[in-house]
Amino acid sequence: MFDTVVVATDGSESVKRAIDVALDLADRFEADVHALSVVDASEVDASPEQLREELRTALETTADAAIATVEERAEREVTTEIRKGRPAAEICEYAREIDADVVATGTRGRHGENRLLLGSVAERIVRISPVPVLTVRQLEPTGDDDDTPSEALAADA
After folding, report:
1. Rounded to 5 degrees, what are φ and ψ at 107?
2. Which residue ranges does UniProt annotate as crossing the membrane (predicted)?
3. Quick check: 26 and 76 in contact, CB under 8 A?
């Protein structure tokens, strides 16, 4: 059913659970895993000109760390990519290019809770994605760090 899973990550706290759920899904279906992070070009362009290069470097470092997190958590090979542009558009384009079966993402990203139900990037991905989108919300901390993705899914129901 799922041969290729894209994990869209920005390195935020809310995406950590989405990574675990996506990797669990990939393991269950023996699917290929692709980790994708997008450096938000509009964020760089909106910054003062004298800070743009420093901001670009910081965002690229964050993207590298986000991708590394997926690789560290995976028990299989992960294809990785970092792109520059508008995150939702780049994620959807990447899914189209590799013929992905599903895109997994957190519901809140680095930009915080500026939407009622979904973060603005997650909402846009859901609206424009050519493939199904698995949005995974971060659960409230329970104090139990041993929750597996399956247990987390059951708790979410």
Report:
1. -95, -15
2. none
3. yes
CA 116 – CA 118 distance, rounded (Å):
6
Tokens 């915080």 locate to 112
E strands, 14-77, in order? 32-40
What is d(CA 134, CA 102) in angstroms, rounded to the nearest whole number? 7
Predicted TM-score of the model (pTM): 0.81
Per-residue pLDDT of the chain (157 residues; tens, 9 = 90+): 899 999 999 998 879 999 999 999 999 999 999 999 999 998 888 889 889 999 999 999 999 999 999 999 999 999 999 999 999 999 999 999 999 999 999 986 544 444 444 568 899 999 999 999 999 987 665 455 544 454 444 444 4
Outline where the chain has alpha helix (H).
14-29, 41-45, 52-73, 87-97, 120-128, 149-156
CATH number for 4-156: choose from 1.20.120.80, 3.30.420.40, 3.40.50.620, 3.40.50.300.
3.40.50.620
The helix/strand count (H/E) of the chain reads as 6, 5
